[in-house]
Amino acid sequence: MNASSGEVGWLALGYAQMSLLAVGGVSAVLPEMQRLVVTRHAWMGGPEFAALFALAQMAPGPNMLVATLVGWRVAGLPGALAATLGMIGPSSLLTWATAGAWHRFRERPWRRRVQAGLVPVTVGLIMAGAALLVASTSTGLLTSAITLAVTLAVLGTRLHPLALLAGGAATGILFDAG
Amino acid sequence: MSIIPADTLRPTSRALFLAFLTASVVAFGGALPMVRRMIVERRRWLTAAEFTELLALCQFLPGPNAVNLTVAMGARFRGAPGALAALAGLLAAPMAIAIGLGSAYARYGELPLVHRAFAGLAAAAAGLILATACKIAWPLRNRPVDVAVAAVAFTAIALIRLPLLPTMLALVPIGIALQRRRAA
């Protein structure tokens, strides 16, 4: 894993763009992240991207850690920092700059309209992110069944997400998901 | 913002750092619920209503929601140094843990047992996000126009695999314009 400055630059640039496009949060840019990392730069395959996403879900904290892990995998610690700062930098500056104005405009109808108009786009993007992840993790009947079972468990029970992740890993070991 | 709290109630940058650090290390499955508990229920730096107002902004703006909220909180109490302190608190431990997990995966990922565990783990993580997607899509079910916009976004990104920037430049104005017509 040797850090090349070219890759660090592409990571910073790619994630900075995603930072400003991540309307609705990081889940909305998962397809773009996969496009950048797997298709455009061929830094890793789809299954490895899905594994890094899973690792990021296991760690505590904000779900943007998938950016940290992708950067780390591509170019070590400099890559991890570049991807993380790229992912949070532009959006943090925007938040910092607009927090006061937002409060001032809270009664204006256009604010509600813009907010409501972004929702369906966000829903479509997050659905797309979920579909692409499921496509790369569903390598057979067993993995598809795990995904379905976890989805239903989240929607229908109050089981902790970490317990569901552990259950998925245990099922993978017991029934040979490799 | 509307009410500037008295100086004694304003957390210092150090207090912000420590609060976000404490909240982040136990925040599994997304940082927002733990951050809310820390800020509203334990430290009482914001009321529930103030928190919800700030959260609306952070979900509206692009970027990771929990990171935006942390920046807005820190900036509100202590300006740019406060924002940086809160952000460092939120990210330091989770980044170190994620990289530790990544190192373990890089070293042992080829072992058959680990490989199987990760196949199962990744499938479960995909299930988590699929469930999230279903939850946020559910409120749209009675609004055919919104369902159509979501379907176009899904098709462009997941099926045609168009880049995100042009897709959003085309779709966001349409999504907003359709809201306007409905409101009028």
Architecture overview:
The complex is a heterodimer of chains A (178) and B (184). Chain A is mainly alpha-helical and 178 residues long. Chain A has a domain of 101 residues. The model of chain A has no long low-confidence stretch (mean pLDDT 89). Chain B is mainly α and 184 residues long. Chain B folds into two domains: 102 residues, no CATH class; 61 residues, no CATH class. Chain B has seven helices and no strands. The model of chain B has no long low-confidence stretch (mean pLDDT 87). The interface between A and B is large, with 110 and 97 residues.
Structure described in brief:
The complex is a heterodimer of chains A (178) and B (184). Chain A is mainly α.
- Largest interface: chains, residues each: A-B, 110 and 97 residues
Query: Helix-strand pattern of chain B, N to C?
Result: HHHHHHH
The structure class of chain B reads: mainly alpha
**Overall helicity of chain B:** over 70%
The low-confidence parts of chain A are none
How many β strands of chain B by DSSP?
0
**Residue-averaged pLDDT of chain A, rounded?**
89
